[in-house]
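We treat protein structure as text, and this decision shapes the records that our systems exchange. Below, we set out a record of this kind in full and without editing:

***
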Amino acid sequence: MIVTEMLISSLAVLITLGYASYLDIRDRRVPFICWLPMLGIGLVCTTSLMWRMTGSMSLITGFLALVASFLYADYLNNRGRKDSLGLTVYYRESFIFYYLAVVLILPAMSWFVLSDNITISLVPWYALFAGIFSYVSYIEYRGRQEEKASLKRERKGSGVEEGLTRWYFVLIIIIFVITSIMMLFGEGWGTPALTILFISVFCGVFYMFSELNLFGGADAWALIFISFCIPVFPFTPLLGEPPLGFLSFSVLINALLLNMAAPAGIFVINIMRGNRAPLMYMFFGFPVRGDRIHESWGFVMEEFEEKKGKTSRRFIGFWDSVRRMYSGKGRIYTKDLREHPDKYTKELALYRNAGEVWISYAVPFIIPITAGLITALVFGDLLFWIMKMVIGV
């Protein structure tokens, strides 16, 4: 059976991912606005499918509440981004409260107004939801006012405020998970609540990975928006539909499997070219000329230090690399060397003197995501198929 709404949404997603892949290869950046046309089409298609399959406005507004929460969290986290000239741009502060009103109204409509059976046990969860978003919005609004008044780039708050503004969205996701479970087993949405539950967990994980610098922002939003736009398979793939029937999970699995080919290929190329490094680095990087390192894409895998006229070098350890990625400090990207050479004059001099420098390979993960979506739509979940082959089912 072909689900027309999901077929239309899939086409919009594939076109957008193709364009986003092109931008990521060219600029290593995908503007957020690039996702909005796809998201608009996808939300119309998904809500249309939900209405046709369930006829529940409570479920639809619950889904839209989840989407609005993600978009509002991104709005809060990225207000004050620098423009192309390096100047900080602040949005009109009043907008923050208009957006907040929408975010608070949608779950109230879903859980209480439009629900066939109002569950009193949802009241404290809604109160917690509203309280968290309201308090974080107030902190954000107050912080922007103080920054503009003092002309400081950063504002120091209490430990509670800093912790809450960093981790509050984890609590929001937990609330959506709990309420979805309650609507699943109570007299609410029934089985369709699983869709909201899967989307909440899947998207919440990748949103937090992005915020912790453990995953690329464009890659995370690609997976999140695929979940919003194509929550179920538009038709049965050639290898059959996996048990969960949640398309985004199959897209991720396929992308990871397809992406595993890259390290193997890099290792073979390094062996053929006679490049030598500790085994792990042979799979994930390659040497480039130090005087032309800014022409490549990736991050520097070595650390250099000059003492008494002598230069020492070492490979950056795995956990040290993760720590630098998480903190956003100490990791040098070739893009920064190219765009801000004045900030890296010492490093560029060391790289030139070193002759060759090892850098990571830099194939944007959005390309495997695109390939993962195509293979998931056509074939299904590759890992599920492999497991069936292994156990002989």
In short: Residues 80-91, 147-156 have pLDDT under 50 and may be disordered. The chain has two domains: 4-235, 261-360. Residues 132 and 168 are 7 Å apart (CA to CA).
